[in-house]
Request: fold
Amino acid sequence: MASKFRYVALLACLYFPVQFASAQAFNRTPNEEYARGNYARAFRGFFEQAGRGNDANVQFNLGMMYDRGQGTDQNDVEAVKWYTRAVDQGHIPAMRALAAMKAAGRGGKPDGAGALALLRKAVEQKDVAAIEQIAGMYLEGSGVPVDRAQAKQWYQKALAAGSPNAKDALDLIAAMERQEAGPLAPIRVRAMAGDANAQYDLAVAYHTGNTVQKDPAQALNWYLKAGAQGNVMAQFYAGMLYSSGDGVAQDLAQARVWFGKAAAQDNKDAATNLAVMFDLGKGGPVDLAQAAAMYQQAAKLGSAQAQVRLAGMYWMGQGVKKDYSQAAIYYRQAAEQNELTAIRKLVYLLENGVGTARNVEESKKWAAKLEQLGGGN
Reply:
């Protein structure tokens, strides 16, 4: 499948950075500059830190900024260089980022085998996101031949490992299999008769190019019809198409609307994406109070990304009243999902008794966990 349709990397379609790996110590100036959108200053700060030491987190941050063209010119070769330095120190997020670049042939020739090798190393460290990324490669044919059976197998592994995304991905594959089980015509007849599930299945077919020629405009049309009847995944994907502008006119205001509908049905990814849009002023004005409310909802639904950002908002007093104890609660929740940034923060909080009771022994346990996950450098 030549399609760039992704399920696991849904949030990457928005690609709005709301969290960033910590550099050496808690709340360093480059991280503060990045959080405020001062990317050039953040880049200079990270670059200076990289010159003074061999911190894998700093190397990862530089790779990410070259990758995204934040604070510097976008440069795939430099991104690969800095990601590779972090990978050499066992940095798991860098493994995933470098694998994505290798699979896409960015910064060098396409290297699907190399991408899979990196991801398998991360899987050996029990990294659930790496399991999902392998599944996505097989589903999309990114760096490897399309192999839906392999994709299904890896998503099932991710589900067993506690992935919050795998079930929806498996449901998507099931929809694709239903399309192939018989002619698409009966699905179209039911869709035109108003069957919301058939409308969703037809939208997926057009979105992925599965059994029909890929047609994002038709996909959006059918997502909107199904979404209007309350199909939550159709609402979510309508938001995704409006936000990405992939084959349709980008309309961030409409993305807010449809993410809002899906979030109202407790779709975790929609709530997270909507929070990010309020946070960064995408599709409308910045509204930190509304962003905090949506992050709160997404955090309750288990979004580690939302938990980390909400913790940061409580720490800085952005959109909510400054409250170190609430920050500690949300950092802990994200840390329990092996979110590296959150673990680093929690180590600091426990070691210093900030926002929570001082507990050096527990701090050491989390520091050991961080080292095990490849983020302790």
